[in-house]
From TrEMBL:
Taxonomic lineage: Bacteria, Bacillati, Actinomycetota, Actinomycetes, Pseudonocardiales
Keyword Signal assigned: yes
Composition skew (Basic and acidic residues), residue ranges: 86-103
Residue ranges with Low complexity bias: 34-48
Protein name as catalogued: DUF4179 domain-containing protein
Length: 126
């Protein structure tokens, strides 16, 4: 049985991939409580902001960075992690929109629960 020593380039590439995945998950890892079964969302769903929302340039930069990594990264694992981060952010945005709608239009119990979720989200800053 013949084994070949791991090259320095392979170790460097693996460690860089691990760092990139960690950074992506840290940047796009906002959490929201699950309230219903998730609906499938497109991978590259564009977030529509209303005219009243201020533009967060840093967030826009990170979003573009994640999208570029998802499309052009050399390692498959890095591309997959970037796509997963985009899906997670899109799902969180959709869930937040649903909860806000439920807080306005739901029945008494649904409104109370939706308002609790919004309060927790605001408290946690997500």
């Amino acid at each position: 049985m013949r084994t070949t020593p791991t090259s320095a380039a392979t170790l460097r590439r693996r460690s860089i991939a691990a760092v990139i995945i960690t950074v992506l998950l840290a940047l796009v890892g906002g959490t929201t409580p699950a309230l219903a079964a998730p609906q499938p969302t497109p991978v590259l769903q564009q977030q529509q902001s209303s005219a009243n929302d201020p533009v967060d340039e840093e967030y826009e930069f990170y979003q573009q960075l994640v999208q570029d990594i998802a499309e052009h990264a050399e390692d498959v694992e890095v591309r997959d992690a970037a796509k997963a981060a985009e899906r997670k952010r899109a799902e969180a945005t959709e869930n937040r929109r649903k909860v806000e709608e439920w807080a306005r239009t739901g029945g008494p119990n649904v409104k109370v629960q939706a308002q609790r979720v919004e309060a927790v989200r605001k408290r946690d800053g997500s």
